[in-house]
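May I ask for a single protein's sequence together with how it folds?
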Amino acid sequence: MKRIRTKEDYKTALTRFEKIFDAKEGTSDGEESFVLGLLIEAYEADNFPIEDPDPIDYIDARLDALGLKRQDLDGVIAKGTSHVSEVMNRKRALSLDAIRALEDRFNMDPKILIQRYKVGVSEESQLRKATSIERTSIVREVVSSRNRLTNTKKVPAKSRKVGSSKTFGQNLKVTKRSIKKDSVSNKKDSAN
């Protein structure tokens, strides 16, 4: 038997391994199966490395495998469900004591738990925050443009009135058009 170096060698080894997988120990096929398994494992480790999971995802998976819930971490990684929630929602990092407790209580791999991971505001809340900021800026723009419209004399009355029968998008379009017209007329006035 020789070391597996190419994809073709790998496919051949897998095919042979499938045929002799159930061979009894002590037989020539059993010995070949054992050695071939080691060679396949070494090839896969070199060519198909598996990254360790994120620590929080790892904790969730381990809890799921044990039939537990996040609530069961209360008193293990932190005192109080709010602290546990902050850790599990990535708002607070795992402490060294928490990592030790997880290793002792749930037999979790500390090498995975000590990895760096993104701590801070979750993506979902970042999206909500961005959306609210965008909404706020749009509202500010509309309000300031309405104020400009009502303070100018050259804007037609139709544009100044933003009635409740129009949608927000229609109001915004009317307002933007009015602002453009107003800025064009202001540029002409300043040029004269």
